[in-house]
Amino acid sequence: MFDTTHLHPMIVHFPIALLIVGFLFDAVSLFVKKEFFSTAGFYLLILGTLGVVAAFFTGSYAGGGISEAGSLKQALETHEGAAELALWLMIITAVVRIALVIAKKYEGGFKYAVVFLFLLGVLAIARTGYYGGDLVFRHAAGVQFNLGLDSGAGDSEKE
């Protein structure tokens, strides 16, 4: 059955993919002087950052239901801290990039600085994903176990 805590794992993978590809386009644009790479990186940065905002808030909601102390709570707090750092790095990167594009100054040292910020943001996203995976695969956060003990087990083979 679907509940709203399922939104976080449904949303979170989109900004990860968008931002990794966006960073790669921006990195390529430093060496290949075709406007396509820089433009694609720009739009993927914007979309990915919006996705990070959505992932952050759905994750905050999903994690809000965990009240127990111990290793699960500590792992959740580590993941939340990493997510907050990633969120702010991506917002700062996007805002700086938008300002430079509007001011028509996205070139030279400014461009290298923004791509470096983008790299830091993507690394922060990867770190956040690592801790999110730790929550699921080591602490079984959000995992519902069905060991076949319920009354409906094996009904699929009935005629």
Descriptive notes:
- The protein has 159 residues and is an all-alpha fold.
- It has a single domain (4-141), classed as Four Helix Bundle (Hemerythrin (Met), subunit A), CATH 1.20.120.
- It is built from five helices and no strands.
- The protein has helices at residues 7-11, 13-29, 35-63, 71-102, 108-137.
- It starts with 6 loop residues before the first helix and ends in a 22-residue tail after the last helix.
Topology of this structure?
Blueprint: H1 7-11, H2 13-29, H3 35-63, H4 71-102, H5 108-137
Q: What's the architecture, going by CATH?
A: Up-down Bundle
| Structural class category | mainly alpha
Helix tally?
5
Low-confidence segments? none
> Considering DSSP H and I runs of 4 or more, what fraction of the residues is helical?
over 70%
CATH topology: Four Helix Bundle (Hemerythrin (Met), subunit A)
The first-level CATH class is given as Mainly Alpha
The averaged pLDDT comes out at: 89
In short:
This protein has 159 residues and is mainly alpha-helical. 71% of the residues lie in helices and 0% in strands. The mean pLDDT is 89.
